[in-house]
Design brief:
It is a single chain. The strands form 6 sheets. The chain has a 6-stranded mixed β-sheet, with helices on both faces. The radius of gyration is 22 Å and the shape is globular. The chain has 17 helices and 22 strands. α6 crosses α12, α10 crosses α11 and α13 crosses α16. Helices cover about 35% and strands about 20% of the residues.
């Protein structure tokens, strides 16, 4: 009988189904409810999980009683006595026995037990768990050992989210837009932010002068150049994380690093860490934030290595894929949708729920942004045959199959659709064994054009979840005039 892991009741709810070492299913509630970052389990998500069997055990991704103490301390009294854990699950018709693991323990376990490493240093950095905001671990065999931690209210993740709000974006959702906006500015306010907010950021310690949990909209209203604010908080984040990783390398005698927590989605910081070279190899589970903790909860409970082979763990759209027809459409300059195979577990489209286009056209970026209703400065990612990646990009790592690192584009003038304002790109590399359908499409396009890459972005518009099932794809096609295969 399978074990279910559940992360819910806060933001971006998810459910994973594991049998032994096999990951049978994992998906996000938002894909079913069509509400971005939906905090609550959805009946259709539960029904999808039940196709794999009723759970004999459910594991909740954090410890509700401990979390209540922090909420009481933080003044969130309206949340203190809400239904959580087993009571929450019972209200959704789930009555299997429930066990609890720690929030950062879930993150650490999700990363280590899906990694290719038997021994690794593990770093978890997010906004907040129960009380933990940053934690360092060592993983070896079936053992996770916590080495150090920082506690609320001292949180780099909360500070980053607060500045996401400060420049006009939605905290706990649009931090990735701040990261992209940082490329348009200069980090001229680092000293001011340190002066006003940061008491200490000498690794491993990160301490704030004031609690920023409720945001910093009020901060220095005379400063109006938001891109420079974005560049400044991004620079602070990168500087601290690189120092923290160096500190961790001095404590754990392993060449391997696992990065987890919401800040592991900051691919610019990830690239700085990789280039710094404190560790030889880095693993980031493709869903490192709280949604990935549904899988991590099971791993933390069983302490069993999970058979991670790919992130395509959600709903299956089983349809033939006409490579020749799609290639012809791309050559004709069309933007094409792919809704084929099992949906990605994680926030990024990796070829099964993607919009794709020729990356060489000077107008392609604006066309795709119009379809997606996004800000015009937002970058798009390239997906490239892995064996060609280093010819086109100055890669910080050998391969990047999950879009977790950025790299300078060697000829940004030739590929304007995927080169950001700083001439970098968030690269996805693909090998045939990793994704045969996508690799074959890239190969067909390469044969016709000499270009081994395509623009790849998520099959959704701003503010909506990724397409999940074929009915979603048909609706997207009808509304936005994009042919979907």
């Amino acid at each position: 009988m399978p074990v279910w892991g559940i992360s819910a009741n806060e933001h971006d709810a998810s459910l994973s189904v594991v049998d032994g070492s096999e990951i049978l299913f994992a998906s996000h509630a938002e894909r079913y409810s069509r509400k971005k970052n939906d905090a609550h389990l959805h009946p259709d998500l539960i029904a999808a999980a039940r196709r794999w069997g009723e759970p004999e055990q459910i594991v909740w991704y954090e410890r509700p009683l401990l979390k209540r103490t922090r909420k009481l301390y933080a003044g969130q009294r309206d949340h203190v006595w809400r239904a959580d854990g087993a009571a929450y699950l019972a209200a959704h018709g789930l009555h299997a026995p429930v066990r609890y693991v720690g929030h950062h323990q879930s993150h650490a376990a999700a990363g280590f037990f899906t990694s290719p490493f038997d021994h690794a240093a593990i770093l978890v950095v997010d906004a907040i768990g129960e009380w933990s905001t940053i934690s360092a671990w060592e993983g070896q065999g079936r053992t996770l050992r916590r080495l150090w931690g920082q506690r609320y209210p001292h949180s780099l993740g909360l500070l980053y989210s607060a500045f996401t709000q400060r420049i006009g974006f939605k905290p706990n959702e649009e931090e990735y837009i701040l990261m992209g906006a940082a490329a348009l500015g200069e980090p001229r306010y680092v000293d001011l932010i340190d002066q006003d907010f940061v008491r200490e950021r000498s690794a491993p310690n990160f301490r704030l002068r004031t609690n920023v949990h409720r945001g910093v909209r009020w901060w220095r209203p005379e400063i109006t150049d938001n891109w420079d604010i974005a560049a400044s908080i991004q620079a602070i984040t990168e500087d601290y994380l690189v120092g923290l990783v160096r500190w961790l390398a001095s404590r754990v005698r392993s060449p391997n690093l696992v990065l987890m927590g919401g800040l592991a989605l900051n691919c610019v910081a990830n690239s700085k860490i990789a280039r710094d070279g404190a560790f030889d190899r880095i693993w980031i589970m493709p869903n490192p934030g709280d949604a990935g903790s549904s899988l991590g909860a099971v791993a933390a409970f069983t302490r069993r290595r999970l058979n991670w082979t790919h992130p395509y763990l959600g709903e299956d759209i089983d349809r033939p894929f006409p490579h020749a027809e799609v290639t012809a459409a791309l050559l004709a300059g069309e933007v094409i949708g792919i809704a084929n195979g099992r949906a990605e577990f994680g926030p990024r489209a990796l070829g099964n729920r993607s919009l794709i286009a020729d990356p060489r056209g000077p107008e392609t970026k604006d066309r795709v942004n119009r379809i997606k209703k996004r800000e015009p400065f937002r970058p798009f990612a390239p997906v490239i045959m892995a064996e060609f990646a280093d010819q086109y990009f100055d890669m910080p790592v050998a391969e990047s199959p999950y879009m977790q690192f950025v790299a300078p584009v060697r000829r940004p003038d030739l590929f304007p659709a995927i080169a950001h304002f700083d001439n970098t790109a968030r690269v996805q590399t693909v090998r045939r064994e990793q994704h045969p359908l996508l690799y074959e499409l890239l190969s067909c396009f390469h044969e016709r054009t000499g270009c081994p890459m395509l623009l790849n972005t998520s099959l959704n518009i701003k503010g909506e979840p990724l397409v999940n099932v074929w009915e979603d794809a048909r609706r997207f096609q009808a509304l936005h005039g994009v042919k979907i295969f």
